[in-house]
């Protein structure tokens, strides 16, 4: 860290705060326990106490959570991650519900509790699909801005009685910017005023040319209400994911992305994590954004306790020391010391950034006043 409070420095060295304050004083630095001292001063004190100095830098962080390239022979097929997007009320959630109810394996039908905004569906053909029902576009945008590319396929839901609307366009732009293939689901085709052709021509204006219009974007007419077209939609997904040849290495330290996170009164910070590579296990130590933790327990999308989660599997993770943000990347590391150090380093970087931004704003305000 670039700076540290006197109390924290004492804590890290397991020395008494009073002794550290005294040592600082002897070096001409007057500081109380809550005051911050710079890294050079801290280093001096650490050496005086006979400890060794380890400074964390961007490079160190990169090294600890190094993205080792997987050997091709270690890669195994993984489920596609599909995000459903579209304008308000165009039927995103209904469509997902319909897919789940119609296509979940026997015995599970109907009785599924959607604990988290991400869940897996087994198709009759035996393939597994991971769906994300992100509420609105905010989560998706923040994920992208944080560099967490979570989705493999976007299903663009457009209601046939309403055609292309502002949030439809936003969704198109997101998918294009993320370079994620799209499948258009023209929904509400059961309605008497449904006009799928208008949807297709509207989309043309936004450079989405569907197959019906001789383009290469798959389009399917569906109805979440009647169940029409659901099989075709699943086929379209299967076809698209085959093209993508999605693979991951289950035998490595897990890396994932936070889909959502909250502070639960009873359970503490809880994060829904989508594992992207490797396998996340109970007891694993991890950093996630500016937080860190140790997996105390995990629950799958049906609220069942699980001991591990492989690629493309969404799980609720307990055991965090703070609440991360949607889009934060999770990396499993070897030791708690590493995890803590990286998290603290990131917190410090974020704090410095905010301070710099704050200073700039103040300066700007002053200049405007002058
Ligand atoms: P937001 O999450 O608020 O953006 O909405 P949404 O896109 O998830 O839409 P939702 O699934 O909540 O559906 C909105 C309304 O449209 C509900 O009243 C649904 O019953 C209705 N609806 C959804 N799909 C269909 C459909 O295929 N046919 C008909 N007739 N109604 C539908
Ligand atoms: Mg919804």
From TrEMBL:
Main location: cytoplasm
Subcellular location: Cytoplasm
Gene Ontology molecular-function annotations: GTP binding; GTPase activity; translation initiation factor activity
Binding site for GTP: 86-93, 133-137, 187-190
Keywords: Cytoplasm, GTP-binding, Initiation factor, Nucleotide-binding, Protein biosynthesis
Role noted for this protein: One of the essential components for the initiation of protein synthesis. Protects formylmethionyl-tRNA from spontaneous hydrolysis and promotes its binding to the 30S ribosomal subunits. Also involved in the hydrolysis of GTP during the formation of the 70S ribosomal complex.
Identification of the protein by name: Translation initiation factor IF-2
Biological source species: Roseivivax halotolerans
Gene designation: infB
Residues of the full protein shown: 256 to 625 of 835
